[in-house]
Amino acid sequence: MSREAEEQLIERLHEPKTQQAAFAELVKEYSEPLYWQIRKIVLSHDDTDDVLQNTFIKVWTSIENFRGDSKLSTWLYRIAVNEAITFLNKQRSLNNVSIDDADTFLLGKLEGDEYFDGDEAQLKLQKAILLLPEKQRIVFNMKYFDEMKYEDMSEILETSVGALKASYHHAVKKIEEFLTTEN
Amino acid sequence: MLDNFDKSKKPFKVPENYFENFNNRIMDQLPSKEEPKVKIVPLWKKVLPWTAAAAAIVGVLFTVGVFDKNNMPSDKQYANQKTDMTGETIAYTSAQDEEDYYLFLQDEVRKSQFKEMLYNY
Q1: What was the ipTM of the complex prediction?
Q2: Which domains does chain A carry?
Q3: Is B32 on the interface with A (CB under 8 A)?
Q4: Which pTM value belongs to this model?
Q5: Smallest CA–CA separation between B38 and chain A, in Å?
Q6: Its family (chain A) (predicted)?
């Protein structure tokens, strides 16, 4: 979406008469990229669907607070990632998992998900990713799968580019070590 | 090793027409945005602080004994006090006092008649 189109959309989102129609456009434009962003964090389709709904409800209820200090897409991604993290925290609490432990309970969900048809190697890669700390996992997904620029990641995750580069470097090292030993 | 992975293969799938259905579904689920309602404060809530303040003041007055009958001046004391203040009003509390009062008035009338006569002649 061009900067100009985004500004017009924001203007219509702030106008009560055009808000509903503008929001329908926003959902149409961003539901798919936000879905994939969330899916890589929570893994199962059903959970992603719940988190995506919560994300858009949050966007709808707080759209008046968006003043355009950042790009609209950045703001949306930030809400989506925060909602996914909130969801994982609740899941950890339900599964009695500490934040410092690996989220391997998600692997069981992934294996039982009818909308995952990865081969053995892809399942192994997901397992390696799940062994990473939460922040490193999000950074790895954004960089490795989405090939997102560090500058964009920095705005979404509100972390310096240097810290993100270091985080990605550590993540890659750990994943490769895991894959080597597993082979 | 990660370079050997074929990233174009997507192991994650979605149900058919998922995004189209989702977009319609979410629009139906949006909470309505109502105008902020004007907060109506019940009358008793408005009056309550004043009532409490008045009750507190009355409580304090009772404590210091303002309404204590024993501390109130009697009618006689009050009458005497009034006489002392003006110097002209005579309090009467008995028949004897009443008679004295009339004598006093007669005396006053006589004095004024005498003054009138003195100034006229």
Answers
A1: 0.84
A2: 1-96 (1.10.1740.10), 98-182 (1.10.10.10)
A3: no
A4: 0.68
A5: 19
A6: Belongs to the sigma-70 factor family. ECF subfamily.
